[in-house]
Amino acid sequence: MSSKSYLAALIGGVMLSASTQAQDYLPVLQYHHVSDTTPRSTSVTPEEFAEHMNYLQSAGFQVVDLRKALDDLKANTPLPSKAVAITFDDAYRNIYQSGFPVLKANNFPFTVFVNSGPVERNSRSFLSWEQMREMQAVGGVFANHTENHPYMLRKAADESDDAWLVRMSEELDVVETALIKQLGESPKMLAYPYGESIQQIRDMVKGKGLIAFGQQSGVISAESDFQNLPRFPASGPYARLSTLKTKLNSKPMPLLAEEAGGDYATSQPVSIRLAFKDGQYRLKDLACYVSGQGKATLDWVSDKEVVATASEAFNVGRGRINCTMPDQTGRQYYWYSNVWIRPGAEQVYMSEKS
C-alpha cells in the first residue's frame, strides 16, 4: 500500500470511528431534592444520588452542558457518545449540601431551574445567590423555573385571558432579570412548574427566546419540540438504578407525526395517534403504558400508524402514556411519552386555542 493510500485509509478509519462514537440525541435526568428527610416522591437520598453519579462515571457516560448540547442538536452537530445531562428543579438548598459535592468531585456540569421568589425572600430551604455563584464557578448553570412556581394554566378568580398571559409573562421575566443581575447571565432555558404547558404558553416562551422542558419522559433530538422537551425523572419511584440504566440507554421514538387531541384530558379515556418513519423497526414489539392503568390498547390503522387508547379516564391532575420499543439489536429502547392535564371541577383553567 502506498503512503497516500495508507494515509487515506487511516483518516477514513478515524472518521468512521468518530462517527460511530457520536450520537444525535440526548437523555436528560431530572431531580428535585437530594435528601432523605424530604417528600419521597420528589427526592433521592444522598446515597442514591451518589450511586447514580458513580454509575455515570464508571459506565463512561459523558455528562454535558445542557444548553450547549441543545444548541449542538439543533445545529445537527454530533454529541459525544453516551452524552447525558443533569438537571434539578426548584433550587432546594439540599442540592448544594448533598448533591453539589458529588457533582464537583466528578467534574459534572449541571443545570438548576430556579423559582426566584423564595430565593429573594432568603428562605433557608432554598439556595442563596451566593451559593449559586459558588456552584456556577465549577460547572453549575442556573435557569428559569418562574418566580412563584404557579400552576401556569390556571387563571385567578375573575382574571381575563389577557391578564393571565401578562401574569405568566411576568413570572418568567422576573427570573430572567434576577439571573442576569445576580449571576451575570441566563442560559435562556425554562422548566415548566409541574411540567404543565399549553400552546399559548409555549408560543409565549418561544417569543422570549427560551428553550423549555416539561416532565414527560423521553429523549431529545433535533426534531423535538424545543418549547416542550422531555426529561427522565430520577427521584422517588424512579430512583432505582436498574431502571434508570435502561432510560439512560434509550433513543428517541422514530416518529413521523403524533396527535394527542390537545393538552387537556376529559371524562373520556385519552388516546394518541403515532405515525412512524420509514425504516426497519420492531413495531410489533411496541408497548404503551397508561399511568395507573397498565397497558394501553393498540389499534394499528396501517403498517406504520397506531392509536394507543387508555382503558378509562384519568383522575384529576396529570396523566401519561409512555411508549417503548426495542431497537433491532434489543439492547436499546426507543422511548416516547405524552402528558395530559385533567382539570378539577372547581379549578379555572385557561382554554386551549389553536
UniProtKB/TrEMBL annotation:
The GO annotation for biological process reads:
carbohydrate metabolic process
One annotated Gene Ontology cellular component of this protein = extracellular region
UniProt-recorded Gene Ontology molecular function terms: hydrolase activity, acting on carbon-nitrogen (but not peptide) bonds
- Alphabetically list the UniProt keywords: Signal
The signal peptide, as residue positions, is 1-22
Q: Which residues form the NodB homology domain?
A: 82-284
Report the InterPro entries cross-referenced here: Glyco_hydro/deAcase_b/a-brl, NODB_dom, Polysacch_Deacetylase
Pfam families according to UniProt: Polysacc_deac_1
Q: Where's it found, cell-wise?
A: Secreted
Its main subcellular localisation, reduced to a broad class, is secreted
Record's protein name: Polysaccharide deacetylase family protein
State the species of origin.
Marinomonas algarum
Q: Highest lineage ranks of the organism? A: Bacteria, Pseudomonadati, Pseudomonadota, Gammaproteobacteria, Oceanospirillales
